[in-house]
Amino acid sequence: MKAAMLSQEAKKNFQADPSRFIEQEIKELARTSPLNIMPSAEGGVIFDEPIVRFADGVDPIFTEYKKVVAPTHLTPTEALAQAYDKAFGDMPARLSVISWILPITERTRRANRRAKHAPSRFWSYTRWYGERFNDVVRQHVADVLTEAGYLAVAPALQPYFKMAANEKGPFSNWSERHMAYAAGQGTFSLSDGFISERGIAHRCGSVVAGLELPASPRTAETPFSNCLFYADGSCQACIARCPAGSISEQGHDKTKCFTYRRSNYAYLLERYGFTNVGCGLCQTKVPCEFHNPATNKF
Fold first, then answer.
1. Which residues contact 118 (CB under 8 A, 6 or more apart)?
2. What is the pLDDT of residue 1?
3. Phi, psi angles (nearest 5°) of residue 63
4. Torsional sign, CA 240, 243, 246, 252
5. Nearest-CA neighbor of 201 among 101, 71, 97, 89?
6. Is 188 left (phi over 0), alpha (psi -120 to 50) or beta?
7. What values do phi and psi take at 281, rounded to 5?
8. Rounded CA separation 288/171 (Å)
C-alpha cells in the first residue's frame, strides 16, 4: 500500500494531538474504505466503529509475554528493530503500541448464532475479507506515522511474523490479543478469545511506533476479569457452543480446535471459496458476544 500523503493541515493536527489524530484516522478509514463493505448483494459494513487504545511500548508486560505466550514472542522494541534492520540499542527510548478493536456487526453475529457446525457466510466473509481490511488499517497507520517522521511498523505484516506450535497448540510471535490486553482493551476468556468493551466478536490489530503516546489504563483486576466463568463461575456458554469439544473448565485446547477447523476446509472451500476462516461459534450466542458481561453495560 502506498504511503499516505498527509496535508499540511493534517500534519498540524497530528503534531497538536497525535493520539487523537491516529484514533480519528482509524475510525475514518472504517467509515470510508470500500474494503469495509461486505462483498455480497446485501452489502453493509463488515465492522462497526473501531475502538482505539494505546500501550507504553516499554511496559514490562511485553517481556512477560515471552513466558505467557512463548520465548519467541517479540517485544515492541524487538519488532521495530527487526523491521528496520537496526540494533536493539538504536531504537527510540520511548515507544508506543497502537491497538484497535474492529467490532463485528450485529447482522453478522446474528447469522453466526444460528450456526452449529461451521461459520455462517457473513462470519466467513468477515474473517476473510475483514482481515484484509484489517491489514489495510495496519499499513495505513504505519504509513501515516512514518510520513510524520517516526519509525513505525505493523508486525503482523512483516516477513518475520511467524506462526508456530508447542505443547499448548498454535501461537504466533506477535499476538494481537496480547497487544490489546496491554493497551487496556479488555481481558481474555475461557475460550481463549478476548473480551473487549464491545464483547468477544471482533478482529484486532496493532502498530508499534517510535513516539510516546498516552498509555490507556488497564483497569481489569486480572487477565480474565471480563469472563463470567472466571469472575463468578456463572457461565459455560462457550463450552456448549464449541462443536469441536475444545473448550472445557480447564480452558481452550488449541490443537483440538485447529484440527476441527481444518476438517471443515473442504466444506468452506466449496461453499465460500476459501478455507481458513476460523469458526466463531464460541464468540456468538454467548453472554460476552457484544459487550463486557462482567459489567451491567449493554
1. 243, 264, 267, 268, 279
2. 44
3. -70, -35
4. negative
5. 101
6. beta
7. -65, -35
8. 23
* In a domain? residue 107: yes
For helices 254-263 and 265-272, what crossing angle results, to 10°? 50
Is there a contact between 20 and 28 (Cβ–Cβ < 8 Å)?
Answer: no
Give the global pTM. 0.95
Residue 148 domain-assigned (yes or no): yes
**Per-residue pLDDT tens over the stretch 107-133:** 999 999 999 999 999 999 999 999 999
| Cell numbers placing 250 | 480447564
Alpha-carbon torsion angle 288, 216, 96, 168, nearest 10: -30
Tens of pLDDT, residue by residue over 175-213, are 999 999 999 999 999 999 999 999 999 999 999 999 999
Asked if residue 79 is part of any domain, the answer here is yes
- Of 39 and 177, the one with more pLDDT: 177
State which residues form the domain around 222: 8-283
How far apart are the C-alpha atoms of 111 and 283, rounded to whole Å?
12
Domain membership flag for residue 293: no
Count up the domains in the chain and report the number: 1
| Residues ≥6 apart with Cβ < 8 Å to 28 | none
